[in-house]
Structures are given as structure tokens and as C-alpha cells.
Design brief:
Elements: H1 14-25, H2 39-46, H3 49-66, H4 76-87, H5 95-108, H6 115-126, H7 133-147, H8 153-166, H9 180-190, H10 194-209, H11 217-230, H12 232-242, H13 265-277, H14 284-297, E1 300-301, E2 305-306, H15 309-321, H16 326-337, H17 341-357, H18 362-368, E3 380-385, E4 388-395, E5 398-405, E6 408-410, H19 415-420, H20 422-447, E7 456-457, H21 458-466, H22 472-475, E8 480-484, E9 487-494, E10 497-499, E11 514-517, H23 525-538, H24 556-561, E12 572-574, H25 575-584, E13 602-606, E14 611-619, E15 636-646, E16 650-656, E17 660-666, E18 671-672, H26 682-699, H27 717-725, H28 730-742, E19 752-754, E20 758-762, E21 767-771, E22 777-779, E23 784-786, H29 796-800, H30 809-822, H31 830-837
Helix pairs in contact: 1-2, 1-3, 3-4, 5-6, 5-7, 6-8, 7-8, 10-11, 10-13, 13-15, 14-15, 14-16, 15-16, 15-17, 16-17, 16-20, 17-18, 25-26
């Protein structure tokens, strides 16, 4: 019983008891707590150390009466806070005091948050006093009670500190074997010689001991001793075996509510430290392992969120600090693979840290750190194995492997080669995988150059872009603007030279020539059309829309509204799709919840122009689990204005009635208003509105072909119909212009006609109107809706039809539907046939 513990102590003086009772009864502000908020508290904090020690012990007596687990007192929080404040002070506690406080904490089993304070008090005492057997026993018991919470990383740190105080050298690895990777690690560690086990234990304890969002230089340096004892090669090889296992779920749930995909807290803390130490590795394979781990750590779990943000952020830090450039290359890939503002912010910070370390800008380090993955020339690599040759070819964004023996092409390497050259063939497979991951990342990086005001001297541009073995496969399919003095021209790589749209080489280029990415807004319409014709003639497929890029100009309506645009207002968007697309296009956005008091806009920062753009959106509905999912997150959004502001002003927003926002921007002098749209640089205006058009075009409920037949919200059906078959946006207008060129090349050309908004396809059974914006279909003569859900993949169209750019999925859907309906008598899908014949 707790009362028996008082045999450790002399009777607490009545003065200390009176101060504690006075504090308990006194009224005052308890949160945030401070002794100075109370008259009794002031007396306590001003008392001599010996009296403060007696007061602390008197608190325990008070808790025995009023604050056990089975009783409640209104002053419990106040008294707990007061005790913890006293325990932070260097008071003259005796060994008997310490044993008493420890036993009291153990008996309470709630310990009121006191372990770190009690451990610190013990550490202070033991600096000047020997460790008695009685105190060792109390601390060992304390350690066992705290350590029973295996899933708490903080508790394991406390256990570690107690073991250090009592000199406990028992090898007890702080890994929870219920996670797959931790079980594998424990099995390996226990099989090592004792010396290696000790070194590994020191590393793991060090990882558990460190806190914060990034390691200190002192901590990293201290770890070198243990890594050298283990052997750096063995240490990093072990991590390359264990880290891929982090993705595997626990074999069994710990509780009925346990999600096996999550990481146990103590293991997550250990992983964070181990990942930080990988920054000392010079292995390119380690960079790929870290990138895979980052994707796994940021994978979202329903009702939980990302699996382990701290582990993912540790991966970003380590990749940015690896001594070779493969780490930065993997960060570039992760920018496209991991969605979410917090992840992108952490990746950006890692890139900036790497840039500072190398005295470069973040853009420069991304340019310089693109690996060639063994490509000897632009888009080409060749490996010879005896009489068999393997070629890797990069064509645009596609990577193919070709095996050939003499004149005979093979579908795969011969069995004999697989046996003799297994490591080399594995490396080739990894190279192809790396290329397929890196190419989209580099495509997106280059497309972002439009808003980065990036220019290069010709020699630098050729090294980093045109002649780079990997980047060159993208750069050579793009049009570039070349300027020197009063002379300027646009050109593209063709047949070993830079040529203009007339196929004439640009022979006047020199080292003084400036190069930038060409944009159709910068030239006359006839120049754009000539470049489009050139791409069709030479069948050059651009990695993203450039010659066919939509241009968005200021409208009369926007001149009238002056500081905002309603061009993309009043749309109904699928929220989760919108949020993912915002992240992919480097917009900052947060999911809207029904509990939110206000809805901040989606924003994009344009640091090169000193601007920030806002797109106002808010959640729709008031019914939980009808208008939201089970977490209270809205399913749909409605859209409002687009506005531009200068960077640097402090913002204060309040939700305004009628679906708007009030934006009061202060710069210390007065209110800063939104920038008039006419003052926005035309290229910035066009690119931003292209993003917004994409948000609406891709995520609008009007794009769902199953809306009418699939139980879509009745209240949105008018909007759905207006969007599905209404006026064309800019991307749809560009699509129509391209179809005018493409249709004559199709075998179904005689079945097709283009009108202002539709592609009309005449089949044997009926005629069909495919909307050029949504891809949805109406059947003549009565405009009956035809629901056809497109295939997930339309890559087969590339083999049948040349399209001069990548990425327009709606165009591919329209063409695939047109080819299907032109031969409607051959359709066998019962659902489609039933609709046609209805």
C-alpha cells in the first residue's frame, strides 16, 4: 500500500502541508499553469530549496488522498502541474526521497507525466552520490514498468536513460518484433558476434535518443565510432535488406482496431535515425532504397493518413545529403510520385539544402544531377554478352529493351546468359525501371521552366538538355527559342542539327546565343500553325503540349471585373481528385472538412514573379456521410474566383457569405488589394489559367460518363448536362483543331464530321455526337445519352494513329469511342448494345 511508503520519509513539516492545501483551495487561472498565478504558488516558488523539497513530498501526500486513479478532485490538474514544476528544480532530494517518489509513481501507474523529471532528478543525485543497491532496485522496477509500453518510443528512451544511470549492460535491442522489418533485423542481430551486437545496440540506442526533424552534426559524427566497429559496408548492406521490408504489414493486428499497415512508434523512431545515417553511404542503390521507403512511408491509410511521415521526411533529408547526385535524382522522381503539400515542401527543403551544400541553386542542382543510367548517347545504350547484344532505346517517354543474336531478334535473353550473367542482367532490368521513373519527372521539370524564367547559354543548354543522354530524349522533341543580339529564331533538333520550321539549319548560333523554352504566346498564329504542321509532317510526338499548347488571354468580362476572374466559377469538382491534381501541379491546397469554419483558397506561389495566385473553392453540402465521407471530408467542391496578389503581404481572411472570401492584405501601411488582371504578365496569366482549366476539365463531375445511370447526385444533373454538352473550353478548342488534321488520316474518316462542339460519327445503327470537351455521347435523332465507360489504357491508339503530343487522355477517349461506334454493328458489349437499340 502507498501508506507503507511513508516509512521512507520523515514527517512532512506542517508549513509545507499548509502551502499545498492552500494552493488546492485557491481559485485562479490553471491553464496555462504557473505558480505565480496563485498567492500560495508565489510563496512556494519563493521558498528556500529545502522547503520546496518538503512541499514536493507533501504534494504526494495530497495525491494519496485526492488524486488517485479512483478519485477525482477539481484541483487535480492544477496540483499535477505544480508538482511537475517543482520537480524541474534542482532541489536537495535525498536517496530516501527518490525511492519514495519512484515507488509512488509505480503504484499510481499513471505517473502524472513524471518519469522524465524523476529520471533527471536521479541523474543529478548520482553525479555526487554512489548508487546504492536499494536505489538500483527501485530504478530497475521503474524501468520495467515504463518499458511495458513497447509501442511508445518516448517510454523506450526513458528506459534507455535509466539503464545508463544504473550501468545495465544487458543487450536488449529496442526493436518491436511485431513489425516485419524489425523481426528480420532482430533475427540477424542476435546471430552476430557479441562485439558486433554491442556496436549495433549503441547505434540503435543512439537513434532512439535523438529527436528533432533533422540530425545534428555532433550526433552524426558520434555515430561514426559505432559504424566503424560494425563495418560500414556491413551496416549499409543490412539496411538495404531491412528497409524494403518496411512496406510489409504486420502479420497479425495488435488489437481489433489495429491497422497492420501502420508502423509501431518505437520502430518508426528507430527507422528515422537509421535513415539519417544512410546519408554516409556512397551507394547509388541506397538512394533507390530510400526513395522506395519514402513512397511507402507516405502511402495513405484510410482513417489514418500517411503511414509514417517522420520516416518519409528522414528519407528526403538523407537523399538530399548523400555524397553523390543519385540522391537528388531520386528526389526529382519523388516530386512526381508522392502527392501532398507537406511532402513537396519537405522535398523542396531537401533540394535547397543540397543546393546550399554544393553552392548551386535548387534548379541548377536538379539539372546537373540527372543521371544518364548507362546511356552512351541520347536515348541509346548497348550491352554485349558473348554473341548476344542488348539494346536499351528511349523514344520519347517510352523505354524498350531489344535482344538480338546476329540477325535474329529475341524476345528475352537466352537461358544460358541468365545463368552466367545474372547480376549484369539484373542491373539492366533496374536501369530500365529507373529510366521509366525518371523520364516523367524530367518532363514535368522541363514543363515547369515556363514559369521559372529560365534561360541558358547555348553550350550549357546543349550539355544539360539537348545532348544529355536522358534529358535529350525529351529536349530534342521540344521547340526552343534562340536569341543573339537583334537576331532570334525558334528551332528543334532534327537529323543531327537544330533546324527551323522550314527545315533549314540554324547555322548562326554561337556560344553567346541565349536559349529558352519556346511558348506559342510569344509568336504570331501563323508561326504556331507552321510548327504544328512540321510536327505532323515529321511525326514528332512532343512530351507535353507545346506547339498545341492552349493560350489563355484576358477577356472583356475580366477587364470589367478588374481584379478577379469568374471564368472558372460555379463548377462542381470531385474534391479528392482536385486535391491530387493541385499537388501534381505544385499548387498548395488542403482537403475541406465539414467542421471547417472557413475554406482557404488553393494557391500557387510564383517566386520568380513575386506573385501568388488564388483559386477559391469550398465544400458543398450540410449532411454528414452524404455530402462527406466517414471522416467528414467533403466529396465535392464548388468553385469561385481566381485572383493574383503580390508576395510578402500578411493576409487575414474571413469566410464571406454567398460563396466568397474577404481578403484583407496588409503591408504595414494600409490594405493591399488584389492585382488588376491587366497587370499580370501574359505568359503567367496563360499558364495559370491553363492549370485552372485543367483542374475543371479533369475533376468536374461532368466528365463522369456514368453520372446519369450510376446514381449521381440528382441536384447536380443540370450542371452535369451543361458541362458534358456545353461550350468548349480552350483545351477542347485545341482538340478540335487537331481533329481537323487527324480525321482525314483515319479509316473511319468517311463516317465522321466535325461541328462546333461535337464529333459526329455515323454508324450502321445510329449516328452519335461525341462532345469534344467531355467525351460524353448523345445519340441521334433524339439526343438520347449513351454511356460508354472508356478503357483505363488507350496506349494502343499510338500504334494506329500519330498524335503530336503526349498526355491528352480525353482525345484518346474520343478517338477510341469514334472507332468503336463507326462499326456499331460489331459491338458485342450487351450494356452498350441495349442502349443503342433502346
Amino acid at each position: 500500500m502507498l501508506s507503507n511508503l511513508f516509512t521512507f520519509l520523515r514527517p512532512v513539516p506542517s508549513e509545507a502541508t499548509a502551502l499545498v492545501e492552500a494552493l488546492a483551495e485557491e481559485q485562479g487561472r490553471s491553464y496555462p499553469f504557473a505558480l505565480s498565478n496563485f498567492q500560495a504558488g508565489v510563496k512556494i516558488q519563493d521558498a528556500p530549496p529545502e522547503l520546496q523539497r518538503q512541499v514536493a513530498l507533501s504534494f504526494v501526500e495530497w495525491f494519496q488522498t485526492h488524486g488517485t486513479r479512483h478519485t477525482y478532485h477539481p484541483a487535480l490538474w492544477k496540483m499535477r502541474s505544480a508538482l511537475l514544476e517543482l520537480l524541474k528544480r534542482p532541489l536537495p532530494f535525498t536517496e530516501a526521497d527518490l525511492r519514495f517518489l519512484i515507488e509512488w509513481s509505480i503504484n499510481q501507474r499513471v505517473v502524472f507525466g513524471s518519469p522524465p523529471h524523476l529520471i533527471k532528478i536521479c541523474a543529478t543525485y548520482l553525479k555526487h552520490n554512489p548508487l546504492s543497491d536499494a536505489l538500483r532496485t527501485s530504478l530497475q522496477k521503474f524501468s520495467q514498468v515504463i518499458g511495458s509500453d513497447q509501442r511508445s518510443a518516448e517510454a523506450q528512451r526513458w528506459v534507455l536513460r535509466i539503464k545508463e544511470l544504473i550501468g545495465d549492460t544487458e543487450l536488449l535491442f529496442p526493436l518491436d518484433a511485431q513489425d516485419v522489418w524489425a523481426a528480420a533485423a532482430l533475427n540477424e542481430l542476435k546471430a552476430l558476434p557479441m562485439g558486433a551486437q554491442t556496436a549495433w545496440l549503441e547505434v540503435l540506442l543512439s537513434c532512439l535518443r535523438v529527436t528533432g526533424s533533422a540530425p545534428s552534426a555532433k550526433w552524426l559524427k558520434a555515430a561514426d565510432v559505432y559504424l566503424d566497429r560494425i563495418g560500414r559496408a556491413d551496416f549499409f548492406a543490412a539496411l538495404e535488406r531491412w528497409l524494403p521490408l518496411v512496406d510489409e504489414p504486420r502479420p497479425e493486428p495488435l488489437t481489433p482496431y489495429d491497422n497492420r499497415q501502420t508502423l509501431l512508434p518505437v520502430n518508426a523512431d528507430l527507422l528515422k535515425g537509421l535513415v539519417w545515417l544512410t546519408a554516409k553511404s556512397d551507394s547509388a542503390e541506397m538512394a533507390r532504397v530510400l526513395a522506395t521507403l519514402a513512397v511507402s512511408a507516405y502511402r495513405k491509410i484510410p482513417q489514418h493518413g500517411p503511414r509514417a511521415v517522420k520516416v518519409g521526411n528522414a528519407c528526403f533529408w538523407a537523399l538530399g545529403n548523400l555524397p553523390h547526385r543519385e540522391g537528388v535524382s531520386q528526389l526529382s522522381i519523388l516530386k512526381t510520385k508522392i502527392k501532398g503539400n507537406s511532402a513537396h515542401k519537405a522535398i523542396g527543403q531537401a533540394l535547397e539544402a543540397a543546393a546550399r551544400r554544393l553552392d548551386l541553386t535548387a534548379e541548377e542542382i536538379e539539372e546537373l544531377s540527372v543521371p544518364n543510367y548507362g546511356l552512351a548517347t541520347v536515348g541509346q545504350a548497348q550491352f554485349t554478352f558473348e554473341d548476344t547484344v542488348c539494346q536499351i532505346q528511349v523514344d520519347g517517354l517510352e523505354v524498350t529493351t531489344i535482344w538480338q543474336r546476329g540477325e535474329k531478334k529475341l524476345t528475352a535473353p537466352p537461358k544460358t546468359l541468365k545463368e552466367r550473367y545474372a547480376p549484369e542482367l539484373k542491373a539492366i532490368t533496374q536501369t530500365v525501371k529507373n529510366l521509366r521513373q525518371m523520364l516523367p519527372a524530367q518532363r514535368d521539370r522541363i514543363e515547369n521552366v515556363y514559369l521559372a524564367q529560365k534561360r541558358w547559354k547555348l553550350a550549357v543548354w546543349r550539355e544539360r538538355y539537348c545532348d544529355h543522354p536522358l534529358v535529350g530524349t525529351i529536349a530534342r522533341r521540344l521547340i526552343w527559342k534562340f536569341s543573339q543580339g537583334d537576331q532570334a529564331a525558334s528551332g528543334i533538333w532534327w537529323n543531327g542539327a537544330l533546324v527551323g520550321r522550314d527545315d533549314v539549319s540554324l547555322t548562326w548560333l554561337s556560344d553567346d546565343t541565349t536559349v529558352e523554352l519556346w511558348h506559342p504566346l510569344q509568336v504570331e498564329v501563323d508561326v504556331v500553325l507552321q510548327w504544328r504542321a512540321w510536327l505532323m509532317k515529321h511525326e514528332v510526338r512532343q512530351p507535353f503540349k507545346q506547339a498545341h499548347r492552349e493560350v489563355y488571354l484576358l477577356t472583356d468580362a475580366e477587364r470589367h471585373t478588374h481584379t478577379y476572374s469568374n471564368r472558372y466559377a460555379a463548377h462542381i469538382l470531385r474534391q479528392h481528385q482536385f486535391n491530387a491534381l493541385c499537388a501534381a501541379r505544385s499548387w498548395k491546397n488542403a482537403l475541406r472538412l465539414m467542421v471547417d469554419a472557413e475554406f482557404p483558397p488553393a494557391t500557387k506561389t510564383l517566386s520568380h514573379y513575386g506573385l501568388r495566385v488564388e483559386y477559391w473553392v469550398e465544400g458543398i453540402g450540410t449532411n454528414y456521410e452524404t455530402d462527406t465521407n466517414t471522416t467528414g471530408t467533403y466529396l465535392y467542391l464548388t468553385t469561385d474566383q481566381v485572383r493574383f496578389y503580390h508576395l510578402g503581404a500578411i493576409e487575414n481572411r474571413a469566410h464571406a457569405g454567398g460563396g466568397g472570401y474577404s481578403a484583407v492584405r496588409r503591408n504595414g501601411v494600409g490594405q493591399a488589394e488584389p492585382i488588376p488582371l491587366e497587370e499580370i504578365p501574359p505568359l503567367v496569366f496563360s499558364e495559370i489559367f491553363r492549370d485552372v482549366d485543367m483542374f475543371v476539365g479533369v475533376t468536374s463531375v461532368g466528365n463522369d460518363p456514368t453520372w446519369l445511370d450510376g446514381g449521381g447526385e440528382v441536384r447536380y444533373q443540370d450542371y452535369w448536362h451543361n458541362f458534358s454538352f456545353g461550350e468548349l473550353n480552350e483545351s477542347a478548342k485545341t482538340r478540335k483543331q487537331l481533329l481537323e488534321v487527324l480525321l482525314p488520316r483515319l479509316k473511319i474518316a468517311s463516317h465522321c464530321t466535325l461541328t462546333d462542339k461535337f464529333l459526329i460519327v455515323r454508324g450502321q445503327l445510329r449516328a452519335y455526337k461525341i462532345h469534344l470537351g467531355s467525351g460524353n455521347i448523345l445519340m441521334e435523332p433524339n439526343d438520347q445519352y449513351l454511356c460508354i465507360v472508356p478503357s483505363r489504357s488507350t496506349d494502343g491508339l499510338k500504334e494506329k494513329l500519330f498524335v503530336p503530343f503526349e498526355g491528352d487522355q480525353t482525345l484518346a477517349v474520343i478517338l477510341s469511342k469514334a472507332m468503336l461506334l463507326a462499326e456499331d454493328q460489331k459491338i458485342t458489349d450487351a450494356t452498350i448494345v441495349r442502349q443503342i437499340k433502346r
